[in-house]
Design goal:
Keywords: Heme, Iron, Metal-binding, Monooxygenase, Oxidoreductase
Distance between the termini: 57 Å
Protein name: Cytochrome P450
CATH superfamily: Cytochrome P450
Number of helices: 18
Number of domains: 1
Shape: globular
Family: Belongs to the cytochrome P450 family.
Radius of gyration: 22 Å
Helix content: 55-70%
CATH topology: Cytochrome p450
Oligomer: single chain
Strand content: under 5%
Cofactor: heme
Strand order of the largest sheet: 3-5-4
GO molecular function, one term: oxidoreductase activity, acting on paired donors, with incorporation or reduction of molecular oxygen
Largest sheet: 3 strands, antiparallel
C-alpha cells in the first residue's frame, strides 16, 4: 500500500474513497514494514456501531493513537479508561453549565457583530477578493480562545495579522497527517536528524507550549485579583472553571493538565467549525437553489418592516432554522472536518443520490430536523466519545451562516481550484477565494 499512498499524496481522500468503493466498504491496509501494524479500514455502519458503541471498551486509543497525536499530551482525545471518563465527565459538566452557556451565547454574538461583520463590510466596500477559509479560521480561533481561556487575541480584523498559534496548529496537523502514511523508521530518522515535517512539528509544539503557558500565567494572575462566583452574569470561560476550584473537580489540574486540556479544546474548536463553514459556503455557491431556500427561511423569522435591513439573528431564531440546519448537516456528511472518519458518501448507506448536496434529506415529513444515528453520520464521532461540543459548533455555524447569507451576496472567484489539503483536518488546499457585496445599503 505504501507505493500507492505515495502516488496519491496529492489526493489522499479521493484515493481512500475509491478503494472503499472497490472493496465493498472494508479493506485492510497491509504494511510493508515489520514494525508497522496492519490497519482495518471500514465504512460499514454495523462495524462502526460495534467498534465505537456496543464494544467500545475493547477498542481504546492506546499506544498507536497517542504516539501519532503526542502533541495533544494526556488530554481528552488521547486519554483512556478511568482518566478519560473523569476528563469527559468534567468537560461535559462545564460545557453544559449555565455559566458557560451564558458566556457562549454572549461571546459568539459579540464576535459576529464586532469581529466578523466589520471585516466583511470592509471587504465588500473595497470590492476585493477575500479568502473565506482564512476569515473563518480567524473567527473560530478568536472565539475558541475567548471560550477556552477568556482572552481575545483579535486575529479577526481588517489588518489580517499573522497568527502564530494558528500557523503552529496547521504545521502540526500536516505533520500528523503524514505520520499516517510514512513508516515509523522514516519518521524516527526525521526526528533524529531534524528535518522534514517532524522538524516542523517539533517547532510547532514549542510554539504551542510557550503560548499556552502564557495563557495559564495570565489567567493565574487574573484570578489572584478577583473572585469567581456562580452568579457571574457574563458567565465564565473554561480555563477559569478549571483553575478556580481544582479541589472540587477531582483532577490534578497542574500546568501539564491545563496545557493538554487547552490544546485539545483548541484543536476541536478552531479547526472543525472553520472547515465546515468553508465547505458549506462553497457548496451553497454551487447550489443557488439551496441559497434561495435558506434566504426564504431567514425572512420568515424577520418582521416585514425589517426584511430589507441588515441584522443578526438571536439564539432562539437560530434554533428554529430547520433548512439551514439540514444544509450544515449535509455539508458535514459530504465533507466531514475530520476526514479519517469519512464514510458518509457511500450509496449503500445514503442511497443513489449520495453525492448530491440535498439538505432535504435531513428534514422529516413533518418539517422537523431528522436525526440520523451517529454510526451512520460520524461527523461528531459516535458512541461514548461523541463530540461534547456539537451544540457549540452548531450555534457558531448557524450564527455565521445566517449573518452572511442574509446580509451579503457571496460569489466564489470563477476558476478558483477547490481541493482538500493534506492534513488531519479537511481544509481547502488553496483556501476559498470569494467576493462579497452588501445586500442592504
Amino acid at each position: 500500500m505504501l507505493p500507492d499512498s505515495i502516488r496519491n499524496l496529492h489526493r489522499p481522500y479521493e484515493r481512500i474513497a475509491e478503494i472503499i468503493q472497490l472493496s465493498g466498504g472494508s479493506f485492510i491496509y497491509k504494511s510493508l514494514w515489520f514494525f508497522s501494524p496492519n490497519i482495518l479500514n471500514t465504512v460499514d455502519p454495523a462495524n462502526i456501531h460495534y467498534i465505537m458503541s456496543s464494544n467500545f471498551s475493547n477498542f481504546p486509543n492506546r499506544v498507536l493513537f497517542s504516539r501519532i497525536f503526542d502533541i495533544l499530551g494526556d488530554g481528552i482525545f488521547n486519554a483512556d479508561s478511568h482518566e478519560w471518563k473523569s476528563q469527559r465527565k468534567l468537560a461535559h459538566s462545564l460545557l453544559n453549565h449555565q455559566q458557560f452557556q451564558r458566556f457562549l451565547v454572549k461571546s459568539s454574538w459579540n464576535k459576529v457583530e464586532r469581529g466578523l461583520i466589520p471585516v466583511l463590510e470592509h471587504v465588500a466596500k473595497q470590492g476585493s477578493v477575500v479568502d473565506l477559509q482564512d476569515v473563518f479560521q480567524r473567527f473560530t480561533f478568536d472565539i475558541t480562545s475567548v471560550l477556552v481561556t477568556g482572552f481575545d487575541p483579535g486575529c479577526l480584523s481588517i489588518e489580517f495579522p499573522r497568527v502564530e498559534f494558528s500557523e503552529a496548529m496547521d504545521d502540526a496537523e500536516e505533520a500528523i497527517f503524514y505520520r499516517h502514511i510514512w513508516p515509523e523508521l522514516f519518521l524516527k530518522l526525521q526526528r533524529w536528524l531534524g528535518f522534514g515535517r517532524e522538524k516542523k512539528l517539533k517547532e510547532a509544539r514549542r510554539t504551542l507550549d510557550r503560548m499556552v503557558a502564557e495563557y495559564i500565567s495570565r489567567k493565574r494572575e487574573e484570578l489572584s485579583k478577583r473572585t469567581i462566583t456562580v452568579e457571574d452574569e457574563d458567565g465564565v470561560d473554561l480555563l477559569t472553571s478549571y483553575m478556580s476550584h481544582p479541589e472540587i473537580l477531582g483532577l490534578k489540574t497542574d500546568d501539564k493538565f491545563l496545557r493538554d486540556t487547552i490544546v485539545n479544546f483548541f484543536l476541536a474548536g478552531r479547526d472543525t467549525t472553520s472547515s465546515a463553514l468553508t465547505w458549506f459556503f462553497w457548496l451553497v455557491s454551487q447550489n443557488p437553489q439551496v441559497e434561495s431556500r435558506i434566504r426564504e427561511e431567514l425572512k420568515a423569522f424577520i418582521p416585514a418592516e425589517e426584511r430589507e435591513n441588515r441584522r443578526l439573528f438571536s439564539t432562539q431564531e437560530l434554533s428554529n432554522l430547520v433548512y439551514l440546519h439540514g444544509a450544515l448537516c449535509e455539508t458535514l456528511r459530504l465533507y466531514p472536518p475530520v476526514p479519517f472518519q469519512h464514510k458518509e458518501w457511500t450509496a449503500s448507506i445514503w442511497g443513489p443520490d449520495c453525492l448530491e448536496f440535498k439538505p432535504e434529506r435531513w428534514i422529516s415529513e413533518s418539517g422537523k430536523i431528522k436525526h440520523e444515528p451517529s454510526y451512520k453520520f460520524l461527523a461528531f464521532n459516535a458512541g461514548p466519545r461523541t463530540c461534547l461540543g456539537k451544540g457549540v459548533a452548531f450555534t457558531q455555524m448557524k450564527a455565521v451562516a445566517a449573518a452572511i447569507i442574509h446580509n451579503y451576496q457571496v460569489r466564489v472567484v470563477e476558476g478558483h481550484p477547490v481541493t482538500p489539503s493534506s492534513s488531519i483536518i479537511l481544509h481547502m488546499k488553496h483556501g476559498l477565494k470569494a467576493r462579497l457585496s452588501r445586500k442592504w445599503v
